Amino acid sequence: MSNVDSSTSPLIDIEDVNNIEEPMDHDHDNDSDNDNDHGNVNDNESVEVEGNPFQKKGRKKTSKVWNEMKEVVLPDGTKKVECTWCKTKFAIHSTGVTTQLKRHLDRCMRRKIALGGTKQKILSIESTGSDSAINVSSFTYDHAKVREVASHMILYHEYPFMHMEHVIFNKFMKTATPHWQKISRTTAKNDCVTTYEIHKKKLKLLLKNINRISITTDLWKSGQKIQYMVVTAHFVDKDWKLQKRVLNFCNVPPPHSGVIIADALHKCFIDWGIENKVSTITVDNAKYNDTCLRILKDSFALKKKLPLDGKIFHVRCCAHIVNLLVQDGLGEIGDIVDGIREGVKYLAASEARLNQFSEITKQLELPSKRLILDCPTRWNSTYMMLSTALEFKAVIPRYQERDLGFVYVPSLEDWVKVENVCQVLAIFNEWMRNDYIRAMALKMKKKFDKYWGECNLLMAIGAVLDPRCKMMVIEFCFPEIYHSEAEANKNIAMVREALYELYYEYVSVHTSVNSEGISQLKTRETCSSSIIPNEKFIVTGRSKFESFVRKADTIQPMKSDLDIYLEESVYICNEGVSSHFDALEWWKINNLKYRILSKMACDILSIPITSVASESTFSAGGRVIDPYRASLSTETVQMLLCGADWIRAFYGLKKGSEAEETSFKEIWLP
Length: 670
Fold this sequence. Notes:
Keywords: DNA-binding, Metal-binding, Nucleus, Transcription, Transcription regulation, Zinc, Zinc-finger. The chain has helices at about 100-105, 110-115, 145-155, 165-175, 185-210, 260-270, 285-305, 320-330, 335-350, 350-365, 380-390, 395-400, 410-425, 435-465, 470-480, 485-530, 540-555, 560-565, 585-590, 595-605, 610-625, 635-650; strands spanning about 45-50, 70-75, 80-85, 90, 120-125, 135-140, 215-220, 225-235, 240-250, 280-285, 315, 370-375, 665-670. By secondary structure, it is an alpha+beta fold.
């Protein structure tokens, strides 16, 4: 048997998606790096006999052992026979006897592991929890399955492909199992590509059975100076669980106009076969997104009917709106914020300064041990910086007495303003207490009103479909939000009208589906009776009843699902359980009672009102495209980031806290 194979061959046929749980093909790494896996042989120990054309030829070897054995010459000139599997060497018998070699091949562990159908089974002893309870079972080392899971590990943990060649990692694996075979970086990359293709096919099959999909998308410039676009799909699965999947992390060449981005998104939707399933797209408030969404909305309107005629198609990211309006508000005390920020930078620039600052903190017996430097574009990190600075307001003037170069000392009046602003940002309902707070609030409200538009309608409908709220939350909040009672009533009526308009769209779809079912049933009955013309088609009582149910289901009752839902009282959770309430679970339990309305609730409640889900992928992108891997191709970057997301979903895992980036820098005092 030849020992030549392809170490970089795919683990399994990516077309055979249904068999992805089966062990993968038993390929062996044939890279030069992997020669040491078989007995730790290097170039100084043995050299293959190349053969001399002028040398007298010996007797032809006929034994099959020579398919798996070869002659080598050691550095001292001695000839030996070497097993191609484990690199064990044997003396060459003068008579040419091969019995010893045959015996070795029969018990060679590496040969048994590598050959399909002759795997070595090992007793595995597993404890079941108690000292006396032990399970003994046979264990088969499957290197192909190891390669598969290794690709999952690389994708999930964002490891470099080189990780599989690390010396101590391989020593660890060799200690864990003596049958471990080293995996080269090339094999690891190809295995990750295979895993990516497998799970892409699985995701396409999953999306094929989803009726409506919501999209979030955003642009990001990497350290490679390449602009990437992330596209994330949000939907509810058959088990009524909210799901999200990263579909694309692709390069979008400049210029980044609305037309270019619209084309890139449309291409993505066609590739995934969801161009007729996209119901909403959530984006930030960049100007090019307005153009992009207008183009897509017009394009989709020609092919299909968008929910509410596209009134909720364009969803503006609420997190981005809040950030913009708070940044406008913070402009009222911009000088104070800049002074505190520069002061933190000044202290963080020197360990000696931090030591001195820490000493004063200890003398005043203050509990806080950290300063925070914000990211100026993130209002929440600015709030964290200001609120933390308040804890050191007694330390800062004392530090200035020791360091005359420190000029960033707010006045008492400034500290009062900072404290009031922090209360506004923390609570968001004490806007009108002072003149500068009033000015701040007016700026924030102006920005808020600018972007409220369509988001108002979507969020209002979503709130009504929360059984704890229904229309009562609208009737309670709108008089507080709007200036006059007439304006509040007008907007309440608008929400109710939109709610019923959307509901009757779902009724229309439900009726047409049932009518189609009745038509198909009649066609089958006609075909069945025509097969045997001389015999009367037998209609059972059960089939009559099913036909009656289908017909009755198309007749609209006096009260609709929506009428009944709104007339019933709101759902009141047990005390302390409200924060853990799952609205989708409630609709799942009540879907037989509200057969049409539950489908509508399922689709609406799966719409994200922020683009945070897509933006969080950029944090992973920053780790994957680090300075050491800046030369990764755009295709490899997409494979790594999308594959990582799909593997997390495959195992039911979420990003660990260590994978999440904060929007501020903590500076710990000595």
